Amino acid sequence: MAIQAQCYLDLTPESLAVMQSKWQASPSTCLVVEQKQQVLAYALVHPWLRGDAPSLDSEISLQASSSWYLHDMAISPKAQGMGIGKQLITHILNQAHKLNIEGVGLVAVQGANTYWQQQGFKPHETSKKLTQSLTSYPADACYLYLDLQRQMTQC
Fold first, then answer.
1. Cβ proximity of 5 and 14 under 8 Å
2. HSE (CB half, 13 Å, CA atoms) of 53?
3. What domain range includes position 60?
4. Structural domain tally of the chain?
5. What is the pLDDT of residues 77-106, one digit of tens each?
6. Which Gene3D superfamilies does this entry report, sorted A to Z (predicted)?
């Protein structure tokens, strides 16, 4: 919760119950990076439909889906520059490939869309449902998707 509050300055942090619901929906896909018994970073990843995103500050339950949603990845300011972000992304994508996940979606905020596009994520068409969900995010929110099936066929 402390890392979330330190990293997201343009939006109200989600509640503990909401954050826990993301983890409880799919604990095997969520990650925490610790060093000397101190949490440095986390990633909340769970199954979700391609082209859709849950509204901010809303509890979720497990959904059957062949895609994942990277709900949140945050790195403590004191751990930035250590390569933890790249390690988290690599781990998530390796696990997704092993499990034949079709792709990973996310909503980039606070200008992070450039970073995510450098990681291979691309803007995705929006639906009425996604547009409605995005109203709970800051104005600069951008839904991006990394198609892992297309990546594999290009190799």
1. no
2. 28
3. 2-154
4. 1
5. 999 899 999 999 999 999 999 999 999 999
6. 3.40.630.30
